[in-house]
User: What shape does this take?
Amino acid sequence: MKTYKLNSVADKTDFKLCQANFTKPCALQDSIQHNLFNIIWIKEGKACYQIDFQRYEVEGEAIFFLNPGQAFSVETEEVQRGYRLAFSQDFHCVETYHKATSCNGILFNNVYKVPFVNLDREAVPELENIIQKLLTEFENPGFGHHEVVQNYLRLFLVLAARQIDAQQAPEENDFLRNFSFLVEKNYRKLHQVSDYAELLGIAPKTLTKKIKQLKGVSPSDVIKERLILEAKRELFYSDKQVKTIAYELGFEDPAYFNRFFKKEAGIAPNQFREQMQVVV
Assistant: This one.
């Protein structure tokens, strides 16, 4: 598998592109860097991944978009053709980019939905053409190499975002995305539906009704799910004490956090950590 990299001044990875083109399906020998945004594009083959403790099976054409810090592991992987892209927040995420393709846009702000896209047939040649241009640029880098790679990445993200955008209703694109963004930004300190209703300038009952219509669950459930997900990530990736995780997530009483976690996850925090260690 060919790998191309762009490093920052501090010699950290800014951008990475891997190309898999095997004679027969096999596992990709390239580990995910959890401090980067990652894109996994399976063109031919199949895979089963655990992403944020949920199991996803795909066969054929699919693209996964992963945020830094998302829990990711491979159950099975039989890929014949595909690509992996990874980039740092400094490399792409600037405020001037369109909200759909920024790091808080619809591609990567995906803790509330399935993290992969089934591609429209017409979009595949356009996206693969961009990848081929990136490969050519890395094989023959010239003046403005860094900027060329940035622009190709940006174009790739725009076209991929259009795929998701076309699959969603306009109302969902706006209201649900705004609510999801606010939860993502504030879940560590704001745990009440009324907090988010105030930020959106609507009544709590209106927010509850709207989110139930769009997602089939209450806004309270969305907030709880985000807290539990982050707690699971911390238990999975770090060796922090449970009480430290509780405080960082805005819980003043660690005992209450333990009860909250067990009620929502069906298992105590320390038991979950032990369970994950056995799985890994």
Q: What stands out?
A: Residues 50 and 109 are 18 Å apart (CA to CA).
